Give the backbone structure.
Amino acid sequence: MTQEIDIYQVDAFTDRLFGGNPAAVCPLPDGWLADDLMQDIAAENNLSETAFIVEAGETGGDYAIRWFTPTREVDLCGHATLASGYVITSFLASGHQEITFGSRSGPLGVKKDGEWFVLDFPAQPGTRVEDDGRVRAAIRQDPLEVWEAPKWFAVLPDEAAVRACRPDLDKVMEIGKGSLIVTGPGDDCDFVSRYFAPGGGIPEDPVTGSAHSVLTPYWAERLGKTSLLARQVSKRGGFLKVELKGDRVMIAGQAALYMRGRIAV
């Protein structure tokens, strides 16, 4: 029997359409769909993430949230959480200004502050490691530093080096969970980054909120300040304001609605 499900597509970490990172959001009023069906929907959407949200989920909070790339479910996603907060405050519960999501990564907050949405995410600091040659081979240049974290990252000397990176995605597959961040100091912000995740079916993610759970502790310590401005310098690009607060990272961005519709499955 065919059922219809609401779907929203939102560009996150941008104030304009066709910028930032597009995410699909599917509210599920009757509870979770079968895992394989949610994975099929995410594959059909073919965006870096599709978020499914259930009101008052069993994981605690106002809603429960799960995220799927085109190939797998993931434990944490920033831009699709921001997009979900946008959908809830704009369409599902417009009186709400703060939302708590229960997730695989614990409680995640989203607070609407004017045109901005502030994510309350766990900080995920890394450990510096020696490159065994895999990172250099993957990014085709010498990293200044390599850090092991939930998302591995390589530090490059400047923004130009980050922008110029042309990774070998087959070799990126050999690192961590098949993904790698490259980062460096920014020309007009504190730091820039790019994120390559072929292991999740994403050659390059346009703007990655969860990557800033990893990067913010590093740059806060390196620059000696807790509030920073960041850009992800992918083709679409995105701008984020981040703040380290103990073991949490506040990640702020804007959003723009691209599409609202229904899917039949």
Observations:
- The chain has a mean pLDDT of 95.
